[in-house]
From TrEMBL:
One of its GO terms (molecular function) is monoatomic cation transmembrane transporter activity. Keywords: Membrane, Transmembrane, Transmembrane helix. The chain crosses the membrane at residues 12-38, 50-70, 90-108. The keyword Amino-acid biosynthesis does not apply. This is Cation:proton antiporter. One of its GO terms (cellular component) is membrane.
Length: 128
């Protein structure tokens, strides 16, 4: 609890740039009044996987950007990707961020049944 209070108060001071007594009291009241979000704790193994995917996504994004510049992609499609089983909202957000981070894909919709609708561009049509 104290850690969250200090974190929120630090953000308050960064936003207001005022360390007066009145502003400090207002900041403490706001920090205490804001609800604290409770989420299910994720396993360390899941976070390590996600961390590795983030590290890998950065060079992939640069490679895809250069591919689009050098060879424009004309074909696009919407594909459905399965959400990994029993993901917390934070991990679902990170999954969507990782898909959208690369230039060739963007998540159009997250279906509550466990699917992402992903818009993807490709160099040429595979159905020819």
């Amino acid at each position: 609890m104290i850690g969250h209070l200090i974190f929120r108060l630090s953000i308050w001071f960064l936003l207001t740039s005022d360390f007066s007594l009145t502003n400090t009291i207002i900041g403490i009241v706001i920090a205490l009044a804001l609800p604290r979000g409770y989420t299910a704790p994720e396993k360390l193994k899941e976070w390590l996987k996600v961390s590795w995917q983030i590290i890998v996504a950065i060079p992939v994004a640069f490679i895809e950007a250069f591919e689009i510049i050098l060879r424009p992609h004309q074909h696009e499609e919407i594909i459905m990707e399965k959400v990994k089983h029993q993901r917390s909202p934070l991990l679902v957000f990170i999954d969507i961020f990782l898909i959208t981070f690369t230039p060739k894909t963007i998540v159009v919709k997250h279906h509550e049944e466990g699917w992402y609708a992903v818009h993807k561009i490709t160099p040429k049509s595979k159905s020819l």
